[in-house]
Amino acid sequence: MNGEISSMRLWWNKIWPPLVAVLFLLGIWQLSTSLFEIEKWILPSPINIAREVLTESSRLWEHTLATVKLTGIGFTIGTSVGLLIAIVLHSIPFLKSALYPLLILSQNVPTIALAPLLMIWFGFGLLPKIIVITLVCFFPVAIAMMSGLRQTDPIMLSYMRMIGASKRQIFVKLELPHALPSIFSGIKIAATYSVMGAVIAEWIGSDKGIGYYMMLQKSSYRTDRVFIAISIIVMLSLTMFAIIALLEKWFVRWNRRQES
User: Fold this and answer.
1) Looking at residue 191, what is its pLDDT?
2) Confidence at residue 2, expressed as pLDDT on a 0 to 100 scale
3) How far apart are CA 78 and CA 64, in angstroms?
4) What is the pLDDT of residues 223-247, one digit of tens each?
5) If you write DSSP's letter for every residue of 132-168 in order, what string do you get?
6) What pLDDT, on the 0 to 100 scale, is given for residue 238?
7) 135, 114 in Cβ contact below 8 A?
8) How many CA atoms, within 13 angstroms, populate the side-chain half-sphere of residue 136?
9) In a designed cystine with 217, which of 42, 131, 149, 225 is the match (CB 3.0 to 4.6 A)?
10) What mean pLDDT comes out for the span 114-118?
11) How far is the C-alpha of 59 from the C-alpha of 15, rounded, in Å?
């Protein structure tokens, strides 16, 4: 019981400073729009935005579900590709020397510029959208995992080689467990990027989703609804980050129990 109370207090001590800051900023925003009589199409007040959320709730829910589905599929594939690339390059040093610079170059091409080409090559279906999200997600995962694998304790590595452990045993028993914190750091970055990747894909070609909804409202100068779309994107990114953070705590705790 005392442990639960302590954890609740710790959680509250972490959450209340940013909560107060957000409420303070919203208050200033509301006061400024009323005091300076700013037009709604330029900068709507938080109250106007909240009212519009209630009006558009059914449409917003439909578009949000579409974005969540696209994000989930793209994030899963992108993370899997990143993990696979990291494992292959770590296992084959020559291949890493040859392809690592290409990984860096792949991130210098803006996704928003590459997306139209993908639509031309693969049409307006699900595939080009998944490729966009994969391109956004795989890089931080691959780089973080390779960095974590390089940080393996050299003494333990030498010991396992000395007792005759195979490369697979060394990877599963030593390198991978010690790389978990780095891997999850990359996955958390990819989780937040995946939402933006889905939105960019919906900008290019889609008939549903938050990105599609945002483009429609921008064309109609409905700034209040654009703010709603931005808020949903932020909440989805925070939710993805929180889910991965919870999984990280569980996996790291489980791994420590296994080691002990």
Assistant:
1) 95
2) 54
3) 20
4) 999 999 999 999 999 999 999 999 9
5) HHHHHHHHHHHHHHHHHHHTS-HHHHHHHHHTT--HH
6) 93
7) yes
8) 30
9) 225
10) 81
11) 31
CB atoms within 10 A of CB 41: 11
Q: Measuring CA to CA, which residue among 66, 64, 82, 109 is closest to residue 190?
A: 82
Phi, psi of 207, rounded to the nearest 5 degrees:
-120, 10
Per the rule left: phi > 0, alpha: psi between -120 and 50, beta: everything else, 125 is beta
CB 194 within 8 A of CB 74: yes
For residue 116, the one-letter residue type is: P
Q: What is the pLDDT of residues 69-106, one digit of tens each?
A: 999 999 999 999 999 999 999 988 888 888 888 888 87
Which residue in the block uniquely carries the two structure tokens 């109609």? 220
Contact 67, 78 (CB under 8 A): no
Q: In this predicted model, what pLDDT tens digit does every residue of 160-211 receive, in sequence order?
A: 888 888 888 888 888 888 899 999 999 999 999 999 999 988 887 788 899 9
**CA-CA distances (angstroms) from residue 110 to 40, 42, 59, 197, 221?**
33, 29, 30, 11, 27
**Helix residue spans in the chain (DSSP H):** 2-35, 46-55, 57-91, 93-106, 111-122, 126-150, 154-162, 167-170, 176-204, 210-219, 223-259
